[in-house]
Amino acid sequence: MAFEIAYKRSVGKDLAGIGKAEARRILDKIEKELPARAESYPALKGQFSGLRKLRVGDYRVVFAIIGAQVLVLRIGHRREIHER
To answer: Any long-range contacts for 43-51 (C-beta under 8 Å, 24+ apart)?
Structure first.
């Protein structure tokens, strides 16, 4: 099943704090892999139950699958992503 990718507005702020080359690499991986394989990524547990994560180097992309759409909620460094 192919998913449509959507971004929460706050993702723009997340990307602004990351270098341009790294942000481009993250966006390329999101656009390339999530539409076809979103369901194969690990689900989070605890208070983030129901969300999933995609690893891109030291960065994590937290997303939710809503029907036929993947909503990207946050992008951040692995040390800080679960604090927000």
So the answer is: 48/82
What's this model's pTM, rounded to 2 decimal places?
Answer: 0.91
Rounded CA gap, 48 and 51, in Å?
A: 6
Taking the CA atoms of 72, 76, 79 and 84 in sequence, report the sign of the dihedral they define.
negative
- Fold (topology level) of 4-83: YaeB-like fold (3.30.2310)
Tens of pLDDT along the chain (84 residues) come to 789 999 999 999 999 999 999 999 999 999 999 999 999 999 999 888 999 999 999 999 999 999 999 999 999 999 887 665
What does the domain layout of the chain look like in residue ranges?
4-83
What contacts 20, CB < 8 A, 6 or more positions away? none
The answer to whether 59 and 22 are in contact (CB under 8 A) is yes
